Amino acid sequence: MERVRVCVAGGGPAGVMLGLLLVRAGVDVVVLEKHHDFLRDFRGDTVHPSTLRLLDELGLGERFAALPRGLLTHARLRVEDESIVVADFGRLRGPHSHIAMVPQDAFLELLAEAEPGMSLRMGCEVVGLLREGERVTGVRYRDDSGEVRELAADLTVGCDGRWSAVRRAAGLPMREFAVPMDVWQVRVPKGPRPNADAAVSIRLAGGQAAATVDRGDYYQTAYLIPKGRDAELRSGDIAGFRARLGALLDWDAEQLAAIGSWDDVHHLDVRMGRLRRWHADGVLCIGDAAHPMSPTGGVGVNLAIQDAVATATLLAGRLRNGRVPPARLAAVQRRRALPTAAIQQSQRGDQALLLAPCLDGTLRGIPAPLRLVGRSPLLQAFAGFLGGIGFRPEHAPDFARRPSTVDGKPH
To answer: Is the pTM of the predicted complex or chain greater than 0.90?
Structure first.
């Protein structure tokens, strides 16, 4: 049986970042990703200032800056016909006073290529865990040929998202929080009157809510629907959805014709929750595997990356020498529990204050707390700090730091 020091399940932001950091620490690691490439429709593409600073510390800042990207310096909310700024990232200290909008496949490819020593196996899906008694000793996975293989590991880390196979197989209990919405994701081409207001636009009006991200020649659009009503709403005519979306976002029929059928409307089943315990003997979950996030605020990617940095910082030394005791795995949860809980509480507040009333038709203008933020540059800057940097941002450990390079040369 093949053996490795660490098996990481999931090649998303948390998994690839953890693999990169552990390789730099001298730890033998294999990352298993069930898809054959990183290209997905409608993945989270926001890279926050805390992550941009981390990329600088890893020596990847210049390479990241060369990727096609948009910059978001202000988060703006439009309710009916009134628009306010709810967060100002432009007043953050340091070189990254913005959120970078970068397609996640390009971001993941950059991380994956940063360390040739990392074994990233595409088309390999974890289907179960290996055990010796109560201890997890590795994984069973289906490779790209369909054959089920076994991989022994001193530590298995679940980075495989909100529907984590590792979490389910480990039997780790989840506390779930109610959410008022699911999301329909669509692509809409730019029309003759493109929105020049921002890289991201959020509009709530007439019992509808949507957020758009400027992708150059099209808008990546998230349209909110009441929780659990996907099948019911799809029973209607697609023309009705096009009309509602056009009225909400001031788009014309020619643009919306790109939504040809319900096949072009992708359903995101929104879940939010948090594991009561992120680990068992020989296994640890981080990112959405440990705490599925609402898409509200677009913070899931960055929180997952922060989890990966904390995991590598706390565990790399022990992993170089063998097994990590459960008490050390618990240290990861202790470090990341507060920022996770704080962000989820903020998301729940936004949902209760804004999204649920919008979807049930009881929202009457901008809520007073947000109106106060809209009138105060100081509160906008504070909101920008919380959203862009957040609670307990992680820095690259010393063993992972590198000077910035371009085309492999020191910069």
So the answer is: yes
